[in-house]
Amino acid sequence: MAKGHIHAIVGENGAGKSTLMKILYGMQRPDEGEIRINGSPVSFHTPADAIAAGIGMVHQHFMLADNLTVLENVVLGSEPRKGGIALDFAAARKKIKEISDAYGLDVDPDVLVEDIGVGLRQRVEILKVLYRGARILILDEPTAVLVPHEVDELFENLHGLVREGITIIFISHHLDEVLKVADAITVIRRGTTVASVDPKSVNARQLAELMVGSELPSPETRESTVTDVVALQVTGLTMAASAWRPIPKGTPASFYMDQMRAEGGGRLLLEDVSFTIHKGEVLGIAGVEGNGQAELVEAIMGIRPSVGEITLAGTDIADWSTLRRRDAGIGYIPEDRQRHGLLLLAPLWENRILGHNSGGVWIDRKGARADTERIVAQYDVRTPGIDVDAAALSGGNQQKLIVGREMSGDPVLLIASHPTRGVDVGAQAAIWDHLRSARAAGLAVLLISADLDELIGLSDTLKVLLRGKIVADVDPANVTPEQLGSAMTGAGEEA
Amino acid sequence: MSPQTPDTFVNRLLGRIKLNGLMALAAPVLAILFAGVITSVVLILTDHPPVDTLLAMVEYGSTPRSLVGIINLASAYYLSAMAVALGFRMNLFNIGVDGQYRLAALIAAAVGGAVTLPKPLHIGLILIVAVAVGAAWAGIAGVLKARRGVSEVISTIMLNTIATGLGAWLLAQWAVPVAGSNNIGTNPIPESGHVPSIPLIPGAPNEVFGLFVVAVLVGIGFHVLLNRTRFGFNLRSTGLSEPAAVASGVDVKKMVIVAMLISGGMAGLVGMPQLLGSSYSYSLDFPPGFGFTGIAIALIGRNNPIGVAFGALLWSFLDVSQNILSLEKVSPEIVTIMQGVIVLAVVIAYELVHRYRIAAEQRRVSRELSAPVGMEGAAA
């Protein structure tokens, strides 16, 4: 990484970007390898070490106290002293002015943070880091919260900083921005560097290809098992960003769409989503993360309120509780298995009960234990026994346990959210096998994944979700990951 | 034990993270020894012989008469701590046990004093009223949290204060003078509402409250409820990981209300051994403060029925045996210091033991990983 460069690091979610940054900033210790600054190796135990070495981090979420002024926020934690006790605000103000002028940040030290806009707050964050003497800045997804013209302003500031000899590490997965601003790009995937490229010689499509990769084991399923029996039908599913209230039955959501959009600050999390899944069909939902996939799953599971019709095997379940939906035969492999799928500090057999806990007063301890033994054997969960805590298992084995649990009790529909994320290759193949055989047995699957090969390989039908709307139907039989990728960003009409 | 999400200090403090085997015992024993050392230091500083003083406390505390007093007091402490523990197990801080039990005892005493019924019915009625009042008072906080998102910590503390005011007003409405003093209290409960005491300790001039049995039953019920029933499983899952509980179909709002009702119902029983065993009337000198002691004891016992039983007996032993101190010319407040130190030391000791275990576990794992295996990787 060269001095005075803007160096971008791109990669999918979970590719290891954040971990890398945490290591650079001393929040996490590396297992192996070394970090060199200006040629000399350094090792950080705490963020304070990193700050002392001239590394500063601007977090994605601002860490500013709203009720203090810019000046107070900047000096917070490294207040200049005068005569031992008193704070030397005059000196601090002078220094802030100097930095602000030198780098063209245009920050007024005496306004309250709560009165300034998002773009300016970000400049305050940058100033805060520079004030502490940082020469290397890490910006974690700095554009996520900015509107386009603020992004342009930020990029101007960044170029200004670079001219003054500051080095910037820029993390993002907005490829267009990266190409626009970076002097060098490193692509990481699954924790390793897969390419270092020159932004002048690649386009967004090639970069996406590098990010996604295409040498994975094939999740191919070709012979169709799709029947014409409808398992799940979703019609006009809409979710407002906030201020949800029930609307009268039978009224179409479209009637209230404008109002809901206005209440949610102009945005709907889900907008008029409709699809049908038949028995034996895998419906894949493709989309860049944060475009409504999580909301769609939560709406179907009844975890978050939404408007629209959801029928499971012909029965309207839109008013049902999560528990009743699960009892009716919806299996759910959640996106974040440790947060939503497991009780990490409870033994495996108790985790078997989680989500399959209805009817009667007593827990069926014997049954749960016996069935956990079955899952462990059938799904090849590697564990010393069923009495160990779920936290003791590796991610792949945790996931196999969840898959086994959600497949038990013959579900009608399985919602699989990133079923193989963060899982090693062996477990991934096993999970794919289980999904395939369940599909052959007539299970309907709603598959959500960021792994495009997985989506294309497993799905019988593919839909692309963008900003809460289904924007394209894709035939998985003749689409490439590249075409799908550009459809996901809304850029490619060619897909 | 993974260092990820729920392994926080608070979770360890509230016993949602298990400590296994000997370690679970080591922590409180260390804490009590530490408290003994601190107390000795204070005694030495104030010119008292520490060993003799502590021995005098043990000797006095183990006389049959004191033992009965310890068990009686511990019954109330235990019920209070279990009420707190139920909330803790699902991340609810019911700070309002104090208000709940006082209001429940007052209204139950008034109802009990106003009617005459055959014996078992009369006692049953009083207990049911107490449970209902405690549950209702705690239920207010539960509904506020579930429907309006009001923190139960704030609302239960406020409800404590309201209970004090309401109690004083109700007592003034219903009070009759207590014979032979300028105290006022509710109409005494007639003989049919008295619970006969049990001569549990041989050689003691006094007897154990009959409702000591209720405390034991509540402890057993707590264990069965939490470990054997679906409701208890849902309650524990909500405490371990709320998102996972929601995803598994637990209606967390309903759980909050029901858990507060049960916790409040248990709190309603706190005053009953005393009321139906010896005072028979709620008067101005009805013992206050059991609710707050219950919080400390729940922490010492890590919200486990057996642990809390030990905690309640220990606390009660210290309370009873401090009576000897004035005879020894030692200020009885030394016991308050000791109780405070025990709570702090227990919290610290659990934390130290926990860290020791993590370090030991990590060493074990890294030893196993550095051994030449290759099995794990090839098989996965």
From TrEMBL, chain A:
SUPFAM superfamilies: P-loop containing nucleoside triphosphate hydrolases. CDD domains: ABC_Carb_Monos_I (cd03216), ABC_Carb_Monos_II (cd03215). Pfam families: ABC_tran. Residues 1-215, 255-492 form the ABC transporter domain. Keywords: ATP-binding, Nucleotide-binding, Repeat, Transport. One of its GO terms (molecular function) is ATP binding. This is Sugar ABC transporter ATP-binding protein. It comes from Acrocarpospora macrocephala.
Automatic annotation (TrEMBL), chain B:
GO terms for cellular component: plasma membrane. This is ABC transporter permease. The chain crosses the membrane at residues 21-46, 66-88, 100-117, 123-144, 156-176, 208-226, 256-276, 334-353. Keywords: Cell membrane, Membrane, Transmembrane, Transmembrane helix. CDD domains: TM_PBP1_transp_TpRbsC_like. The keyword NADP does not apply. Coiled coil: none annotated. Pfam families: BPD_transp_2. GO terms for molecular function: transmembrane transporter activity. It is a multi-pass membrane protein. Its main location: membrane. InterPro entries: ABC_transp_permease (IPR001851). It is found in: Cell membrane. It comes from Acrocarpospora macrocephala.
